[in-house]
Amino acid sequence: MSGIALLVPDLLSEIMFALPSSISQKFAFAQVSRRWRDLALDSHLFWSSFTGGDSKVDCYRVPLILERSGAMLHIHFRFTSGKLADWPADALKALVPHVARIVSLNIEFTTPMNVDALLNSGLEFSTLQTLRLKSSIYRNVPGLLITAPELRTLDIERIHLTHWDTLLSPSLESIRLCDSPVEMLLEILKRCPRARCIVLQTWYPWSGNSIENSFAAFPSRPIAPALRELELRVRENDLVRILKAGFSDVVLHSLAGCIYNGHSEDDVELLSGALLPGVGFLVIFRLVDMRELELHDGAGHIRRLRCWNDDSYFEVMDAWKYLSVHYGLHKTVREIQIRPEYWDEYLEVFESYAPQLEDGITLTIETDWDTFSADNSKIMRLPGLAKVEFNDSRNADYLFRTVSDVLARIEPPKARKVQVCVGKKKYAKQDALFDSLRENNWVICAHCES
Predict the structure, then answer these.
(1) pLDDT average, residue stretch 315-330
(2) 128 neighbors 103 (Cβ within 8 angstroms)
(3) What CA–CA distance (Å, rounded) separates 230 from 240?
(4) Is the pLDDT of residue 1 over 50?
(5) Does residue 6 or residue 177 have the better pLDDT?
(6) Contact predicate 356/327, CB 8 Å
(7) Residue 227, exposed/middle/buried by CB under 10 A (0-12, 13-18, 19+)?
(8) DSSP label of 46
(9) Which residue in 238, 158, 231 sits closest to 199, CA to CA?
(10) pLDDT range class, residue 317, cuts 50, 70, 90
(11) Which pairs with CB-CB distance under 8 Å and at least 24 residues apart come from 272-276?
(12) Would residue 120 count as lying in a domain?
């Protein structure tokens, strides 16, 4: 310990601020030696950002931290033990005199608890910019009544908004509400002119006036000039009507829609008809997983087609076929991002509607999952293939195995050399891999070669 104690102050300060923000880690640092303790106690910034659990020790230390903290507080609590106790509520109550200093507040909890003193007493958080509240259950969660005039990010999940209008500040830029009435979207659009990102998730149907009349009442178009990203997890009929009534005159940068039970081409048709109007030629097709498709057009607009529940999924064949027939995807796509575990499904798709872009197609392989099984023996033939990219993987051995397995199942076109990119990181077996690729007539891309 004597060698550690001799660290120069600047280096010691870097170590101090590189520590995890947990309360226990901060106190452990301050207890190493008298010198370390003095350094920690003299730094208000060190105590201004902390993460607490639901242990009694963490909660009882909160008042001590607040005494040492600086002018701005960044606070994160995870109350996840599932045990009812008084000390989490006491820890939150200790924040009440300091609400004017809280810049970000993030609270997660799994059981009902008393948060009235902090979150349901009409307090004004005058400097609060980020508020995230997440509960694992919806029922028996206390109401929320606070004011935050400078709020920029609001993320609420399974929290009952007793007086939601006090939180919809004109300063809000990013809003995510789960389990709120779908009509909340109207209030957001009316009250939050700076909103750039809105995510609304609810299974409640639209219950007020008709969707068409509600959006027709807005005095000007487009309704939300600053809006760039919109994600709606609502009932299918509500999704289509909301987008048609409120956003038919604007092409958003990013738009995502969800269906609850998706298994057929009809579901792809429904989401495509709702999300794709206004976009240009589709140039990127990405199967994130069997429950999410991501599409990009040439202007950079992003469209995400998602299944809501775990039992739903997209049939790759149905999705590619529908988008090719109705949107010409197979004629315009220049990048296809796939996962090895769906290899056979893609081969069947490409045999029916083969990508045709003559300028060259990039095939991007996601390598975060297991490589091929022994049953994956089909050979892919893409006449327009110009480049194969592999995303960064877990380790060199895994990368080597993945690249070898994938390329062994691709037949390069005879008309051109196909580049291979394995990412910018250096791997121990990279030279051996490159030698193997050259022997099989693949070309190493320029930045990998360098």
Answers:
(1) 89
(2) yes
(3) 13
(4) no
(5) 177
(6) no
(7) buried
(8) G
(9) 231
(10) confident
(11) 272/305, 272/322, 272/323, 272/326, 272/327, 273/240, 274/239, 274/240, 274/243, 274/244, 275/243, 275/303, 275/304, 275/305, 276/303, 276/327
(12) no
Q: Hey, what's the torsion of the CAs at 407, 412, 416, 420, to 10 degrees?
A: -10
Of 197, 199, 189, the C-alpha closest to 221 is 189
Asked if residue 382 belongs to a domain, the reply is yes
- Give the position of tokens 């199967």: 287
At 367, list the tokens.
Answer: 């390598």
- The total number of structural domains in the chain stands at 1
Question: Do the domain assignments include residue 256?
Answer: no
Query: Residue 203 is encoded by which pair of tokens?
Result: 């299974």
pLDDT top residue among 239 and 290? 239
Checking if the pLDDT of 181 tops 90, the result is no
Neighbours of 217 (CB within 10 A): 10
Question: What are 117-142's pLDDT values in tens digits?
Answer: 898 889 999 999 999 999 877 654 56
Can you tell me the distance from the alpha carbon of 97 to that of 101, in angstroms, rounded to the nearest whole number? 9
Average pLDDT, the chain: 85
Residue type (1 letter), 254: S
pLDDT at 158: 83
DSSP sequence for 268-331? HHHHHHHH-TT---EEEEEEEETTEEEEEETT--EEEEEE-STT----HHHHHHHHHHHH-HHH
Owning domain of residue 367: 334-450
Question: Contacts for 215-224 with beta carbons within 8 Å, 24 or more apart?
Answer: 215/186, 215/242, 215/245, 215/246, 216/245, 218/189, 218/190, 218/246, 221/249, 221/250, 222/247, 222/249, 222/250, 223/189, 223/247, 223/250, 224/189, 224/193, 224/195, 224/198
Instruction: Report the pLDDT averaged over residues 274-285.
Output: 95
Task: Examine residue 239 and state whether it is found in any structural domain, yes or no.
Answer: no
Residue 16 identity (one-letter amino acid): M
Q: Which residue has the tokens 């935050």?
A: 148
Which strand (E) or helix (H) includes residue 381? strand 380-381
The per-residue pLDDT for range 387-440, each reduced to its tens digit, is: 999 876 555 666 677 787 788 888 888 878 889 988 766 666 677 778 877 877
The β-bridge relationship of strands 335-338 and 361-365 is parallel
